[in-house]
Amino acid sequence: MFSEDTAMFTMGTFTSNDQAWVVGSTGYSDGFVRAFENTTVPVLGTVDRGLYQTSRSAPSSLRYIGLGMVNGAYTLEFHFAEIQLDNSTTWLGITRRLFDIYLQGTQRVKDFNIQNEAGGSSRALVRTFRNVEVTNNVLDMHFVWRGKGTCCYGPLVAAIRVTPVFSTAGLEAPGSKSKSSKAVAMGVGIGAAVLFVILFAVFLIVKRQQRRLKALLEDEDLKHLEGKPDLFTYNELKNAARNFSSENKLGQGGFGAVYKGVLPNGTVVAIKELSSKSQQGSREFLNEVTVISSVQHRNLVKLHGCCIDGDHRLLVYEFLENNSLHHVLLSSRRTKPDLLNWPTRFSICLGIARGLSYLHEDSKPKIVHRDIKAHNVLLDRNMTPKIADFGLAKLFQDHETHVSTRVAGTIGYLSPEYAMRGQLTEKADVYSFGVLALEIVSGRSNLDTSLPADMVYLLEWAWNLYERKQEMDMVDKELTDVSQEEAARVIKVALLCSHAVASSRPAMSHVVAMLVGTSPVDVSSLRPGYSALKDAAPGFFSDSGGKDRSRSVDSVDQPSSSSANTSYVFSSQASQAPLSYQEENSIVEAR
């Protein structure tokens, strides 16, 4: 007989509908531990693989209590499989899960390690305990983390089987005869045949939620990824955001609103609710969810989970106190300028570079973000930058040198080869980083029509200043503590990154080395004049003197080589800003 444990909590208690058992979980998870763990990787060493595909987990203490048990001796079988940690050399491969097992209040196993006992990850393991005595009609089974192993990973169990050693035929239930019918129903009725069997089969989520995870893996572009985010119901997130009240609203992006929410365990999160009219379909949504949950880096935004509930599509991110880089640096509502002194700006440039280097070179598969901009860099309480919004990310395998795809990104940050020909490589992100680094140094956006004509386009102005050996003139005048050497280095690196020819741009790991000073900044490849960009992509910027800049661009067609007079113009239409909490203007997304 099967009794499902589907209570979605990491801290709390749950009683089964028939009041035959109770489960309790305690401990502070900080987002590392979910109520359940799930895997699509086949579990070896068993014919009943489905039983081990899901497991109940807890931050520190997991306790099952059987109620109304007939007194006597029982055989207990605990079913385990390490489905969260792996055997690789990554973080999940070097971590260790150690916990103790207590039965009826007595420690029976110390420092239990599922991987060691089973001989590896994703292997079934059954640990049997015989002649466990029940004397007060209560069976207490306790799995507890005692501070050993990795702090973030507590007890994990897939199923529990309880079998009486004695025959249950003709047994009188415990208690007085006036209560016998109730006692028999609770203690004996479950196993009226030869054996009395209770099987606590622990599943990650109900079948509906399992189908959603399966859909993630069946997506053509995403089937090779191993992301395992938490899945929330719409009502859970609605309650967390107080019915998505205006008081909890952090901002409005082109694809939906972002709200501040508080999960039941007290974790403060940012909840992005996609608009029902959004053009971002399930493919883009699942792309963002799976990609973010498959990468872990201090300069990448952390995904807590998502919601795929009917027509509702929501993403649940960590809450970052200082909003976006655009809000702090470029917005007309710019506040607390002291937050962006020169050391902080340099640290932000370096952090973004490190995050991109990880995506391009260390992530498996490699990831091209496609929309690096100030809106998509969020800042935590310590002003640490975290790259957000992977909704436009395109994955490519090692053997693919480029991907020709629909253009998606923000004009002004798009590289010439990507905007004009749709050719996508990681060098497109390098170009966008170069533009963003210039914005950080100068404290202005890449397009500002309020400035003199020769300063409207930031990149063109930067190249002109570099030619005249006046590049330091572009440093934000509000800065009073600038390191001349660091600022000059950042500017030169930014110009190298924004080179018109993709092959001349450095890899992001080289960018990091140049920024920290372990590698020299070689500017010999910089062609004199901004004309290099115009030669490589004629018409990439409008030559109309800004007369047409109010037009809206909703798509970018791939032009032929003869389209030298094509003008790309800017609109006041809001672009996608899923985690950049404020509503922004003067940006257009090319789709």
From TrEMBL:
Positions annotated to bind ATP: K272
SMART domains: S_TKc (SM00220)
One cellular-component annotation, GO: membrane
Alphabetized Pfam families for the sequence: Malectin (PF11721), PK_Tyr_Ser-Thr (PF07714)
Topological relation to the membrane, as annotated: Single-pass membrane protein
Keywords: ATP-binding, Glycoprotein, Kinase, Membrane, Nucleotide-binding, Phosphoprotein, Receptor, Repeat, Serine/threonine-protein kinase, Signal, Transferase, Transmembrane, Transmembrane helix
Feature: compositional bias, Polar residues: 564-585
PANTHER family given in the database record: LEUCINE-RICH REPEAT-CONTAINING PROTEIN DDB_G0281931-RELATED (PTHR48006), OS08G0203700 PROTEIN (PTHR48006:SF34)
GO molecular function, one term: protein serine/threonine kinase activity
Protein name: Protein kinase domain-containing protein
Transmembrane annotation, as ranges: 183-206
Stretches assigned to the Protein kinase domain: 244-522
Subcellular location: Membrane
Keyword presence, Transferase: yes
